[in-house]
User: What shape does this take?
Amino acid sequence: MAVFEKRDIFDIIIVGGGLAGLSLANLLAAQNFSTACVDISDPKLAMTTGFDGRTTAISWASRKVLDAANIWNDLIPHANPIDEIQIMDGDSPTLLTFDKEEVDNRNFGWIIENHLIRKALYTQARKTENLTLFAPESVQDFSIGKQHAKAILKNGRVLQAPLIIGADGRNSFTREWMGISTRGWSYKQQAIVCNVVHENPHNNIAIENFREQGPFAVLPMTNDEQGRNRSSVVWTEHAVNKNSSALNYDDTVFNAALNARFPDFYGEVELTGQRFSFPLGLKHAHNYIAPRMALVAEAAHAMHPIAGQGLNMGFRDIAKLADLLIAAREDGVDLGSNALLHSYQSARRMDNMGMMAATDGLNKLFGSRLPGIGMARLLGVRAVSGFAPAKQFFMKQAMGAAGVLPQLLKDAS
Ligand SMILES: Cc1cc2nc3c(=O)[nH]c(=O)nc-3n(C[C@H](O)[C@H](O)[C@H](O)COP(=O)(O)OP(=O)(O)OC[C@H]3O[C@@H](n4cnc5c(N)ncnc54)[C@H](O)[C@@H]3O)c2cc1C
Assistant: This one.
């Protein structure tokens, strides 16, 4: 039998230190759980803009998670509020506007650059005594016993805890090891992501323009170091052959295409930095749990980014799991018990399925140019626009304040 040094025994082991895994690790460590987090990527690279040029729309509920992970204060200077959301249908005028005045003057959320969230998470992880980050490092194998689970690292080190959490993304090794299959499909679309500078201020407006190729979103960012107005673009296109993809337009053609898609109030728009592309697909794990193991965020559910809710849903997983772990410790109950794992799964699976169905439906509804669908879309949007409770429902969804909220997020509504 292996002998463990005390430093290799933890309350929780998290595999995957992306935005979800490292947020959970910081949050649990702040709650005095001794936590290990293993990530295959090199933190030095993961903090650069070249690693992931995306921004994330952080909802009020997710802000609570980042606060509980002790990084929200560091992010405030980089977080641009969303005060208004304009929904457009191709080149037609704005169909629907969500204004913060309709929700007690609270903004809908914030846009933050992913690399800055990562940087804040790593910085906090380094300062936190209860948290040990193994990166770059990977897990080679697991072994599950009656009292504990073990993660065997590539460097030969063996970590032990009553619970292992897989947060290792949509191609999760942990999920595969657990023998859990997934259901899903490719959208045959890719999202091109880039940042732009523009002549006029964005006035904290987010644009979602539903075009035949897929949504074209403009998200308001904080100004750059030179004080230039900035926004982030998520441009969805059908997965086309490489040569005709906007990813490979030369800068002049790309800028002209951007200017044609941006509403006039932005003035002149210009690409800044590199373009990134992400293939889009839906993937849902049939199960989130196995003995002494659980999956969170994209390891459990990956969805279309049309509503900017993928990570926000992952943060709801994190908040629920944290609630259950805190309660189990208070009651002196095993942190990896079957009862705890089943409570987690039943609380999270339906909620995630609802959002996956909604994003899938939105993509289909707005991506179709069939005449009947076009009319249904128009009538549907008009109905939402003219019916206050429906509008409130959509706004609460955007803020992450809808549905049954975990205790940790209770006052996010
Ligand atoms: C274009 C686009 C825009 C989006 N915009 C939004 C938005 O506005 N709002 C929102 O809420 N969501 C958004 N999303 C979704 C969001 O980006 C994802 O939900 C989120 O990044 C998933 O985080 P994660 O930590 O689960 O997975 P990942 O970010 O994939 O992290 C997984 C981590 O696990 C590590 N790992 C992988 N394998 C191993 C292994 N074997 N051992 C150890 N470590 C491993 C990786 O290095 C990585 O750090 C968007 C997605 C796309 C594609």
